[in-house]
## 1
Amino acid sequence: MVPPARPFISIFERVPDPRQAKGRRHPLAAVLTIVVLALINQQNTLRQIAAWAQGLGEQIRSRLPLHRNRIPSEATIRRVLRNLDVEALTQAVQDWVEEVLTAYFPTAHWQGLAIDGKTLRRSQDEDLPALQVLHAMVHELGAFIRSQAIPAGRNELGAISPFLGEVVLEGRVVTLDALLTHRDIAQAILERGGHYLMRVKANQPQLLEDLKLWFDDPSPLSRAENRVYRRVIKGHGRLVCYTLRTTEALNAYLQRELGWPGVGQAFCIECRYTKLRSGERGTKVHYGITSLDFRQATPEMVLDLWHRHWDIENQGHWVLDVVFGEDQSRARKVHLPQTLSLLRRAVITLLRLFGQEGVTCTRARLSANVDRALSLIGLC
């Protein structure tokens, strides 16, 4: 494992303590360290986190930044997380992840960055809607680089522009689902030194129609302008054949006539699948555009970027809901759900740095050896 530039625990030094100094019994770093260690050790709820911490032995307590070896209660942990400066914690985590990515991928070319939203469904209250969070996750590591709550009354589309302004885009390809396929978003990404790869669906009807007309055209002239790449993948009980067709012939038209900035390629992906057990067969066709031209991205790279965008669902949202129980969390007061959500994502990044077995197995292995978990966050 390549060590990060700074130990994980140093993140907490940059977060201001929301409490008054008078009567403060537990250092902020101690509270946040206990929450992170408990999340690593398979404790998902605040009640579980507090109970796990109370059971720590004297040897482990002596290595934590505690005051007189005292463990904070559930009420104290809840109160600290509820009132924490979420933006300061977000920025501290983001800076640390960027340092880690530089250490792991110092020469990475056009690093993929998936952006998508997620709803914390059980955070809904009588007076408050469920919290929605916008995430940016790097393809190569499955690391959450930034997580930010969507303000009440807005959706992903309304929150994406300020969100992009807080993320390093230079040298990265931002991959987006069809909901975020818009001209102004494409322009914002290009202006900040990045590239985009967008899926095209019915919310952009003219663009979708033009792509369908081109790729469905059987004439030899149209086909001669296309590059074709095929890949066969077997897994999860299915055999899938991907056929990617991509062209630069539409670039001028899409830029001048439809106003799509910086289009480098338009592409069509046909997925023919066979379910191995039942023999059932089917076909799905997807369309998209990217600002990467043929010199910057081969058809193989375009397919990789399109395919790996869905890691934010499979390696991100699924892990949060199934492994960390985020969708069942009832935390909803003030900043509590946002803070817990952010710490869960930081722990996922940390676990992916530690081992290649997957988050669930790595978590189980570390829970059997708290010493290793302490070393992982920088408490030797």
## 2
Amino acid sequence: MENFHIIKVKYLGATETRGSRVKLESERFKQYILTDYDYNFANTYEIAENWLKANGFELLGKAEGKDCYYIISTTFKPLK
């Protein structure tokens, strides 16, 4: 069975001091990054997909969780 890198993607709503953000969390490396919500994209998944591709990740697929997305990648490197 093939092994993949799972990245959890979650929307974080605005607070009194910060705008909306997107959290990308590597299940393998137990680390995360936060990126600003970009309203040029249709949804949280597209923002995460764009960030990952721009940072050299090869993407294989996605899945939906209760309150998040999971992106399946064949790239095994930390987010930071």
